[in-house]
Amino acid sequence: MIKITLPDGSIKTFEKGTTPYQIALSISEGLARNVLAAKVNHDVVALDFPIQTDAHLTLLTWNDTDGKAVFWHSSAHLLAAAVEQLYPGVKFGIGPNIENGFYYDIDFMEYPISSDDFKKIEDKMMEIAQKRPKFERIEISKNDARAFFVKKNNEYKVELIEDLEDGKITLYKLGEFTDLCRGPHLFDTATIKAVKLLNTAGAYWRGDEKRKQLTRIYGVTFPKKKELDDYLLLLEEAKKRDHRKLGKELDLFTFSQAVGMGLPIWLPKGAELRERLEHFLKKVQKKYGYQQIICPHVGNVDLYKTSGHYEKYGADSFRPITTPQEGEAFFLKPMNCPHHCEVYAMRPHSYRELPLRYAEFGTVYRYEQSGELHGLTRVRGFTQDDAHIFCTPDQLKEEFCKVIDIILYIFKVLKFENYTAQISLRDPEDRKKYIGSDENWAKAERAIMEAAKEKGLQTVTEIGEAAFYGPKLDFMVKDAIGRKWQLGTVQVDYNLPERFNLEYIDANQQKQRPIMIHRAPFGSLERFVAVLLEHTAGNFPLWLTPEQAIILPISDKYMEYAYALKSELEEHDIRVHIDERSEKTGKKIRDAEVKKIPYMLIVGEKEEADKTVSVREHKAGDQGTMSIDDFVSMIKQKIKEELS
């Protein structure tokens, strides 16, 4: 007999070899109907997995992230099965689940393929799903797996097999389709009730631009048609909020092929917005004792060899810049932390000086593949609101908690109200990915978990998501339409201080190693602005928006008053400009609404005579006539409330 511990802490006894489905059935038939997969200890498994030892069991439904992952991974196989029937002889690359759905990379050979073919593929997917074929797991030797895919003339799967360990290779069969896959999968296709293929994209095999470009088909499935309908409405709303579209409409940023892919250019309004974000955070950081520094955009290659970034990120960086001096080479910096370590190392430190908090809006560069670039969210050059705190072990938790306070204040001001803190730990089964001793990793992970608990954060734990030098706390934020973004990160690092031989003198005059905290509340200004644009649909808070008001004179006769009004408002630091076009007032108002300018100040004969303004608010309409002083007071009060 084995003991199974359920999430509520209850313990049930079952025969050895009992499956998660049988356990679900023993609890209730309703649960058994809805369960998709299970988590046994830390491993996600299929419903027919025989449990052989005492274990913690979580039964996964559509409401669980891991349950959706299994559902969508199985749907990727369903897509491939349909494609294989419709286009015999095509070759399959990889087909994983993603955050919202799945994709499959396919070599369509000579077949033409476009979104016009989606309906035909969707119909075939549902035809197969309604027959309820089972996902059959097949354990196979490396030689037999290789032979199977050689026979199918699929060089992509053969290449993947070469990287796998013999004895741990499995295939999954769905009807006539067989795929190389570790699983797990649904029991069968019965729960897949609605499907939508969304778009295609080019994807180089294994992300290598020198390899063949495959066709990536993105899709999503649901257990109910209504959920698909709701999701498609959400996608339509997301299109309206697309930061690339809004950025163009609001004149915030642009890209130029002549400058280079993935290198954003901030236009005047965008630059002002970005400067205000920087000023806002600098003001907060000053209260917490941070010191601003500025480091070069490049660093000697040896600097990154010392830090470990050359080994871990070298392939994703721009090529080294060589100089006329033999053997000398520089990197466009992929990270700010090695530079900050050098700032700390420039002179000796006493424990009395710690903690030292160095902050920098530092621009970094990474050579993202062209197919992965996406607006401001995935670029090759971006500015991090980076800071590194050097502290003693006794100060670690307090400093970590203070960083959390900064992040939560930013979220409050910008109305990111729905968030989860993700504790990202290393994968104990793959320690080659990380640097540093087990002892230091254990201490760092414990400090993060204690700080998160002390601040009362709602947390999830992800194994294997740590940085290569230390564990981290990532803030996962849901925006106004329910999409999840990673914003803000805090990381504990015992390793870089060791690699750079950083020291301080303790109270006993002994040399000690400081602990380093990496933190970036925004993450990067580019990505943060993109997320904020989509979260607010371009309706920025008043303190941040590039233009707080626009003056609309009803004719040229009142232009002089408009300019006098503009000067007076600017003396109160209100950002305002004049619409000088010879257009009707109605058109000027409509255009200002499109530009999402918070206030429209209409001025004519009466306003000039009374030294007042007729105020319209974006989306709210006419607010009546106000004196200039009253309008200024209203703006200042609203900004004060936003920042409180």
Give me some keywords for this one.
20 helices, alpha+beta, 36% helix, five-stranded mixed sheet, 33 strands, 644 residues, eight-stranded mixed sheet
Descriptive report:
Helices cover 36% and strands 27% of the residues. It is of the alpha+beta class and 644 residues long. The strands form eight sheets. The protein has an eight-stranded mixed beta sheet with strand order 16-20-21-28-25-24-22-23, sandwiched between helices. The chain has a five-stranded mixed beta sheet with strand order 2-1-5-3-4. Strands 6, 7, 8, 12 and 13 form a five-stranded antiparallel beta sheet that branches. Helix 5 (142-151) packs antiparallel against helix 6 (155-162), helix 8 (243-249) packs across helix 16 (525-536) and helix 13 (396-413) packs across helix 14. The chain is globular, with a radius of gyration of 29 Å. The N and C termini lie far apart (59 Å). The model has no long low-confidence stretch (mean pLDDT 93).
Helix fraction bin: 25-40%
Alpha-carbon distance between the two ends: 59 Å
The biggest beta sheet, please? 8 strands, mixed
Strand order of the largest sheet: 16-20-21-28-25-24-22-23
- Counting copies of identical and different chains, the oligomeric state is single chain
Low-confidence stretches: none
Question: How much strand?
Answer: 25-35%
Enumerate how many helices there are, as a single number: 20
Average pLDDT value? 93
Global shape: globular
Cα-based radius of gyration, to the nearest Å: 29 Å
Number of strands: 33
- Structural class label: alpha+beta
